[in-house]
Specification:
The protein contains 15 helices and 13 strands. It is of the alpha/beta class. It has a seven-stranded mixed sheet, sandwiched between helices. Strands 1-11-10 form a three-stranded antiparallel sheet. A three-stranded antiparallel sheet has the order 7-6-12, covered by helices on one side. Helix 2 runs antiparallel to helix 4 and helix 10 packs antiparallel against helix 11.
């Protein structure tokens, strides 16, 4: 017993020391140095390849130099990763450019345990092409107008008619300017292409994409015809809350008007990213010109020269230092040439339709579309959630006096990312900075990132409920219809 007591006493004597050794060590002090280096990396990335850098200073009136100086001070005073992240997110919000984005790393992402697999993609063909829909569309407004009568079916484009002051208005909703938002069209195209369900190889996938996109375009045009057959004399296209989409928008916009639309001129960063793309365009034009009839060869050679001139601009940098001091630079920050959002040709020339190279010079011809399916007065409904490709839709119609824009000022996203864009991975935090590498310039020279100002303004507010938004639309719609009628009569 005496020996046991001695052993127990010794154990109790050392127990406090043992427990002290197992207590967790205090967390290390937060080190902001890596975050400060990340902020400098952001500044360098913006200096080299942010398309809207000059817009941020001259139109947004953002004091870039002081912004980065204050950001550094806040990082040096930060005491946690959350406080450090807020500095970067505050910069993103302050700029107000919807294509500037910090994407923070998360567990389970590519390269992390349990993240994206390197195995061959075994999903069905339409899923591999990105066709999906979540069935939600919280942005639609016009189909809730009093007296609205929905047409049967929708083919992904809900439509109906409503009587307004004795006239019949056809309403059609576009929730997103992307064929991939219509998986049913892809499923139908796949059945046509592989009726027995055979595997779809790379060539099959290319054909499937084209067939599905053309089916979606045809579905939209059919809805326009159905609205005309239902007695609609004015068309209201609802793109409120439409956050954008793809280059498909340039085909769709030409179905809703008989006006020969001229698309926006593109500004591009002076960077190898664009120099390479423009050099590739020049090569394509020259290679395509070989063996063509003289008239076609001359057109293609002219476009090759335009690409070459633009490439020369992309290869000549512009010093960004004055912009960080609040001054305009002595050079043009962006390159500009005879390059448009549709390619080297700004408007559809019927003479090139059917040419094997037509889509190379006028990109919308990659899709089978019929210009001017709708020929009457046109109104487009927008709001603060209308951005990117949907702003492109509204801008090209407004600039060509082809539609009346109704609603609230749009989001201000403008042109985004070409060929995947230029992503910068911040070395310390691992965040990915996405910056737009292009700009679209309106007919009056404004950068589209400033947003679209409606012709008829509706005072939509962010905290408006659905019923209140509809009441605001109902009150403003007659004025927009009257203006659209006068516009159509003056064509």
């Amino acid at each position: 017993m005496r020996l046991a007591a001695v052993i127990l006493g010794a154990a109790l004597a050392v127990a406090p020391a043992a427990f002290a050794q197992t207590e967790p060590a205090p967390p290390p002090a937060f080190d902001s140095a890596g975050w400060v280096a990340d902020l400098e990396q952001v500044r360098q990335a913006m200096s080299a390849g942010y398309a809207n850098l000059e817009w941020a200073v001259t139109e947004r009136e953002a004091p870039l130099g002081p912004l980065f100086a204050v950001g550094r001070q806040r990082l040096e005073a930060a005491r946690s990763e959350a406080e450090a992240r807020e500095v970067f997110e505050r910069l993103e919000r302050y700029l107000g450019d919807k294509h500037v984005d910090f994407v923070w790393p998360r567990a389970g992402g590519p390269g992390a345990p349990g993240g994206t697999s390197d195995r061959a993609d075994e999903r069905p063909p339409c899923e591999r092409l990105g066709f999906k829909a979540d069935g939600r569309d919280g942005g639609a407004v016009a189909r809730s107008l009093p007296g609205y009568r929905a047409l049967e079916g929708d083919s992904g484009f809900p439509a109906g008619v409503v009587e307004v002051e004795g006239g019949t208005v056809g309403v059609i909703r576009i929730a997103l300017f992307s064929p991939q938002a219509h998986p049913a069209a892809c499923a139908a195209a796949l059945t046509d292409l592989r009726p027995a369900g055979e595997p779809c190889d790379d060539d099959c996938m290319d054909r499937l994409w084209s067939l599905a996109a053309d089916r979606v375009t045809a579905d939209f045009s059919d809805r326009l015809r159905t609205l005309k057959a239902a007695g609609a004399t004015t068309l209201l296209v609802d793109i409120a809350g439409n956050g954008g989409g793809t280059e498909w928008v340039e085909a769709v916009v030409r179905t809703v008007t008989p006006v020969r639309l001229r698309s926006a001129r593109v500004g591009f960063i002076r960077h190898p990213h664009w120099a390479e793309a423009l050099a590739a365009g020049e090569r394509r034009m020259r290679e395509t010109a070989v063996g063509q009839p003289p008239e076609d060869r001359a057109r293609l050679e002219r476009h090759a020269a335009a690409y070459a001139a633009a490439r020369a601009q992309a290869e000549q940098p512009c010093d960004p230092a004055p912009l960080f001091e609040g001054r305009a630079p002595d050079c043009d920050w962006l390159g500009r040439g005879e390059i448009y959002s549709t390619g080297p040709e700004a408007a559809l020339d019927p003479a090139i339709v059917g040419k094997p190279w037509a889509a190379e010079v006028f990109a919308p011809l990659a899709f089978a579309f019929e210009p001017g399916v709708w020929t009457g007065p046109l109104v487009v409904l927008v709001d603060g959630g209308t951005g990117s490709a949907s702003e492109q839709f509204a801008a090209v119609l407004q600039d060509n006096q082809a539609a009346v824009i109704l609603g609230a000022p749009t989001a201000g996203a403008g042109c985004g990312h070409t060929r995947g864009g230029l992503d910068t991975v911040l070395r310390h935090s691992g965040a990915t900075l996405r910056l737009p590498d292009c700009a679209r310039f309106r007919s009056d020279g404004r950068n589209e990132v400033s947003g679209i100002d409606p012709d008829v303004l509706i005072g939509f507010r962010e905290n408006d409920g659905p019923a209140r938004r509809v009441k605001r639309l109902e009150a403003a719609l007659p004025a927009a219809l009257e203006l659209a009628a006068r516009q159509a009569a003056n064509r």
